[in-house]
Please model this.
Amino acid sequence: MRYSFLALAANALRGHRRWRPAWRSPQPQRGYEVVIVGGGGHALATAYYLAKLHGVTDVAVLERGWIGGGNTGRNTTIVRSNYLHDANAHFYEHSLKLWEGLSRDLNYNVMFSPRGVLNLAHSDGQLETYSRRGNAMRMNGIDAVLLDREQVRAMVPDLDCSPQARYPVHGGLLQPRGGTARHDAVAWGFARAASALGVDIIQQCEVTGIRVEAGRVQGVETTRGYIGASKVAIAVAGHSSRVAAMAGVALPIESHVLQAMVTEPVKPFLDTVVTSGATHLYVSQTNKGEVLLGGDIDGYNSYAQRGNLPIVEDVLRAAVSLFPRLSRLRLMRTWGGIMDMTMDGSPIIGKLPVGGLYLNGGWCYGGFKATPGSGWVFAHTVAHDEPHALNAAFSLERFWSGHLIDEKGAGATPGAH
Amino acid sequence: MLLIPCPHCGPRAQVEFAYGGDATVARPVDPDAVGARQWLDHVYLRENPKGPHLEWWQHVAGCRAWIRVRRDTVTHAVLGAATAAGSIEGGAS
Ligand SMILES: Cc1cc2nc3c(=O)[nH]c(=O)nc-3n(C[C@H](O)[C@H](O)[C@H](O)COP(=O)(O)OP(=O)(O)OC[C@H]3O[C@@H](n4cnc5c(N)ncnc54)[C@H](O)[C@@H]3O)c2cc1C
Ligand SMILES: [Zn+2]
Model:
């Protein structure tokens, strides 16, 4: 059923009893042309674009829990393309353009809200590097506006821009087209659209092994039996190392826990996304009114989906120094997600050294904004057995050929990206 | 918060320590005997286990020594600790 104002009105008159589930939940078949491991936004977007753009509809998405229950449903939903390096800039800008038309394309409101993403500069040196990044972005056709302190103050009145602030504000770099989106809606919208095109979405089906014969993938062992596949595409975020190891492939990845938290809801006071690299904080206000806060990873290998208090304290300390008014709010919830941190801070989207096996992973802090773009290039890679120009640089081989994409210049220290 | 038993100072809070990553990663013994590929494997590849993990921590706000800790990456339980050269009870290395 197409969602529209008319459909809503008609269903309202019938007491909302005729809505159908948004996607089918079939039993797994014995085999598929493509099996996608994982049921997050990236897997579902890949399935959707495989079916829509490449005519590959014999596809199953296998999720061990429920779709969107991983990082897709746990992140702070910031969408942006404000990158310095060309490979990142082109890829994330392509993704941002897809976000701009996504609700219409999927016939599902993903609540994309281009409310702007503002990076605060706390020193003149930082403002200089922002001006360099802003110029690089503009050279790549991406919107960027350098703001001075007064412009920042006018935009975010509750920010402490006074001279005695613990972290003085010297200005900022704004990407007006950046913003946020509704995380669950992204998973559900892609699932519904993929299912309508014939993709089987199978939840509570964990992949426990990958069968490889003569260097080619044959299928996957799952908690619901063996499923054959000509191609297997992995999109499991924090579990990339574990699933790739099933096919004997080692990755330059460490899994870490990243936490986020929300306060009790208050009236709207913040209509943009504010981030501070120096204090490693990002703040936005959700549509429900909660103040949504994120910061650093906890900093040690973890598969726990929950973190510890030192980082919570760290995030809140930064939040209160930048927005003193927040000190009166109570924290409502904290949670964590498992992030696949790569050795250069950039993702891996491409072929693995086993025939018919592909990886989409290593998303570090920033894979939510990539969701449509990642699915788009990964579908191309799987369908053509070759990367698209937009993801060719994100190969696994770059770690051995020396073509790293190290946005921060932090080197082989996953905790520092 | 993790409670890390420093072999020199006793149990101390996690905030006194800095994390140093996988302690099973071994630098090639004879640098000239291995090629670029193996060097890069050493720099980049990690086992990244789900479960017990042997790792480096530095007691930066204490004795400043690097120590080795075995910790479960799923439960976060600290299973044991030893000096850099010492061995941890109840497990290999
Ligand atoms: C706290 C937090 C804040 C973040 N904030 C932002 C942000 O503001 N902006 C941004 O762009 N990004 C952000 N990110 C990163 C972003 O959330 C992720 O990069 C992105 O959502 C990854 O999507 P995915 O579909 O690859 O993974 P996921 O949504 O994690 O999906 C992977 C799925 O694979 C399943 N799975 C794992 N192993 C198996 C198996 N063996 N068999 C079957 N299924 C399996 C899991 O259950 C999971 O559902 C944040 C992450 C966290 C944790
Ligand atoms: Zn000590």
Q: What stands out?
A: The first helix of chain A runs from residue 5 to 13.
